[in-house]
Fold 4-hydroxy-3-methylbut-2-enyl diphosphate reductase.
Amino acid sequence: MEIIIAEPIGYCYGVERALNITYEALKSKSDNIYTLGPIIILTFFLMTSGSSLR
């Protein structure tokens, strides 16, 4: 089976935007940053599911 990887590969716009907002918040003078949930849901899902994914 041949696997073709599209160019360019990377995060979708929503994930990229969420990360950019987070990085900008980290650069601010605020000591604490709070979110109402995980910044990237898929990452949270993969971390909590672990090897149970098949």
